Amino acid sequence: MSVPSTITVIVATYERPAALDVVLRALSEQLGEPFEVVIADDGSGERTAEIVERWLARFEMSHVWQPNEGFQKARLLNRAALVARGGYLVFLDGDCVPRRGFVEAVRRAALPGWFVASKRVHLSPRFTERLLADSVPIWRWSSWHWLARAPRELFTSHHRQANRPGVLFPLRDRGRPWKPGSHEFRPPYNGYGYAFGVLREDFEQVNGFDMRFRGWDGEDVDIADRLRQAGVRCGWPGPDASVLHLWHTPGKQPASPPPREPGAIEAPVGLRELSRELAEAP
Questions:
Q1: 7-280 sits in which CATH class?
Q2: Which three-class secondary structure string do you get for the chain?
Q3: Where are the domains of the chain?
């Protein structure tokens, strides 16, 4: 298994066009080599389509849309992965703004035997409102800048320790995947879905996301567990890969996860099943 030369960033979105616009702006200023973008849209309306159309000239980009029939993020991400051409897939939530070095940090960590997850800074409601209105280019801010502004711009009512900028943007980077003896990385509060990278071969080996997940979340933790069962370790690409999470009203509690056999690697209803379904569709 070799290191991939091409990367696809899959951005999941639903009816939050202003946030999507900021994320695409940050992606347009990424350092390093070009990459593909796929917008995975769970039934948004015309305003989101207008945002996507505006950015088509700036990226190699596709827009994958499915009807809004309840929260089906796992199905949507699998569908976007089927469209993606990259040998490495990066899944990014549409309200998580990547720093300028995000894609290059992930590219350096795209190594055989590893998948990657990141950390996030929760921005405060007031600051989120201002940056969406005034187009504040937070993706350009240095770690020192974030340290100087904290905690003024951060939302700290929960996960207080994990949200300290000194934890998220350390000046000394430890635990990169390519370092001998690196420990297994587990993101703060066990969340993977907001920024998650995996070799296409490994994604296909575990049959992608389990489409039986229909709820607010859980599909990300499930695929991370199955990748580990397959012998793929989780690493951290470093502080440049930390993402900036725009505040939103908390969603509903996660649905109960579907049952999975202990030690199972493949999703019972996943990428292959969706591929067959789409091929058979009229």
A1: alpha beta
A2: CCCCCCEEEEEEECCCHHHHHHHHHHHHCCCCCCCEEEEEECCCCHHHHHHHHHHCCCCEEEEEECCCCCCCHHHHHHHHHHHCCCCEEEEEECCEEECCCHHHHHHHCCCCCEEEECCEEEECHHHHHHHHHHCCCHHHCCHHHHHHHCCCCECCCCCCCCCCHHHHCCCCCCCCCCCCCCCCCCCHHHCCCCEEEEEHHHHHHCCCCCCCCCCCCCHHHHHHHHHHHCCCEEECCCHHHCEEECCCCCCCCCCCCCCCCCCCCCCCCCHHHHHHHHHHCC
A3: 7-280
